[in-house]
Recover the amino acids of this structure.
């Protein structure tokens, strides 16, 4: 659909319905973790300290570390195997001679794994780690073309009478997500934080569309993009 003045005027009152918070956001705990790590690195406390970032927990599955030294993409199967091994060593029921007394807590391991295995949360974490305030409301993407695409997708979900009618939208949205991941891969490799920030916002919109489709499929309605 071409974007005209009339079209934008017709849809402008709908824009507040969009909300990016649908996908669970780890930003507040991530920000707190990063702040804690920076404080700990400069303190002289003799107590065992948590790793400075999530990437250091998984040297086998992420040997090159975070971008730009390493790739944005991660081998998720290898990450899961290393996660299970870490959890076993940190579990309270694990024998003392196996459990690492000075290792990271189980909660920290869980948070690191859940963040790194999800591309959107991983991108948000890397941005926060680099000092980008991804919680700032002013950073939401103000792209009329993108917003119109999202609104049209929502209308398509709401108007669907069967799952078959949603299949073309599922395919288009999967392509959008894949494209966002490709852009993020390149942006982080080039340390282009502004492009990475913008694309993370786009990805968050596409994930909201994905959730709206899933909600329809499960008979829960299609209100994921609404307040």
């Amino acid at each position: 659909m071409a974007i005209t003045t009339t079209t934008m005027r017709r849809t402008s009152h709908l824009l507040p319905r969009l909300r990016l918070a649908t996908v669970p956001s780890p930003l507040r705990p991530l920000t707190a973790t990063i702040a804690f790590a920076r404080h700990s690195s400069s303190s002289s406390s003799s107590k065992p300290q948590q790793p400075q970032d999530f990437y250091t927990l998984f040297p086998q599955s992420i040997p090159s570390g975070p971008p730009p030294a390493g790739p944005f993409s991660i081998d998720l199967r290898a990450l899961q195997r290393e996660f299970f091994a870490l959890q076993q060593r940190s579990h309270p029921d694990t024998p003392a001679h196996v459990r690492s007394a000075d290792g990271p807590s189980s909660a920290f391991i869980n948070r690191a794994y859940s963040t790194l295995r999800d591309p959107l949360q991983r991108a948000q974490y890397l941005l926060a780690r680099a000092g980008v305030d991804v919680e700032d409301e002013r950073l939401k993407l103000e792209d009329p073309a993108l917003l119109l695409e999202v609104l049209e997708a929502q209308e398509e979900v709401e108007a669907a009478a069967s799952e078959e009618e949603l299949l073309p939208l599922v395919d288009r949205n999967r392509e959008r997500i894949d494209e966002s991941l490709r852009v993020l891969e390149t942006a982080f490799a080039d340390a282009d934080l502004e492009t990475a920030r913008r694309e993370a916002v786009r990805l968050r919109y596409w994930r909201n569309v994905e959730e709206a489709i899933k909600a329809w499929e499960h008979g829960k309605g299609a209100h994921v993009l609404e307040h």
Notes: The radius of gyration is 20 Å. Residues 22 and 208 are 6 Å apart (CA to CA). Confidence is low (pLDDT under 50) at residues 5-29, 35-48, 223-227.
